[in-house]
Amino acid sequence: MNRINLINKVLKGFSIHAHANSGNQKPHLGGGLLGICTLSLLIFLASCSSIDEDERFTYVRPANVSRAVLLEDFTGQRCVNCPNANDVIHQLQEQYGDSNVIAVGIHSGPLGFKGNARSLGLATDLGDTYYSHFGAEYQPVGMVNRHGLVDYTAWTAAVTQALQDTATVEINLTADYDSTSRQATVVGNVLALDNNVSGHLQLWVIEDSITAMQSMPNGSVNRTYVHNHVLRAAVNGDWGSDITIPATQSQSFAYEYVLPESYVADHCSFVAFVYDDSGVLQAAKVKIVKPSRQED
Questions:
Q1: Which of 103, 142, 214, 292 is the most exposed place for a label (fewest CB within 10 A)?
Q2: Per residue in 99-126, pLDDT tens?
Q3: pLDDT band at 24 (very low <50, low <70, confident <90, very high)
Q4: Between the CA of residue 133 and those of 1, 27, 109, what are the distances in Å?
């Protein structure tokens, strides 16, 4: 029913009601209220702008979608310059926030250490896969949104530039954790903002605050060095899962991962990112265990 027909119907109903009360009956409060409500409705209907049916559910682009940067750091416990690279990451996250600069330490390569009976090692076969695939030849070296390998001395400029890029994808994440089963669950949504998206969704588990040996720039070995944002595992395969989303549409996902006993759940996070042949389109991070609220 269009607005004109609706107005006519309301007027007709009001006329019938008024006629029924026009004899010797005294006016009553209900009739007055009906008149007021009717006139209010007519004013509202008359003031509404004409909107075509096809325009009533027009997609509205979310405002101020932040562009997060994924910084993949190829590092190693036997790498004497890697603590310097870690300092650069710390400075960037202090400046821009760790939700905008999402760092992942990929322990790998010839300077990686997989551990022995005496010392904990953080290098993994997964890390070696990435190190070889992307053609890294030394450490520390990294990638900013997978736009080629970059020496750590150039990370600040590369990250600062990447943060200026317009976001084409929005990723929202929530996580849940069952301490009894040690099962972590991540639920997310990927929204294609302006253009079609066809690429891969990658999910990783990273861990902070791991105390383990590290070779230092002065040639010493620090056996109580604290390692952060360490790549622990790929949740949905080494290269993620395929994802295709039409422009302005979204796609949801959910994955589960059982944390090994050696992982400290309170220090772990899920990292999610969408990438294609052009690089990383967007990244996001969520802690697996929700931080407790600080008491006042």
A1: 292
A2: 999 999 999 999 999 999 999 999 999 9
A3: very low
A4: 62, 87, 11
Structure confidence at residue 244 as a pLDDT band (50, 70, 90): very high
Q: What is the pLDDT of residues 146-165, one digit of tens each?
A: 999 999 999 999 999 999 99
* Angle 175-272-283 from CA coordinates, rounded to 5°: 120
Rounded CA separation 79/139 (Å): 7
DSSP secondary structure code for residue 154 in this structure? G
Cα 234 to Cα 208: distance, rounded to the nearest angstrom: 16
Full-prediction pTM beyond 0.90?
no
Spacing of C-alpha 95 from chain mean position: 19
CA dihedral 243, 246, 249, 250 (to 10 degrees): 0
Rounded distance between C-alpha atoms, residue 252 and residue 255, angstroms: 11
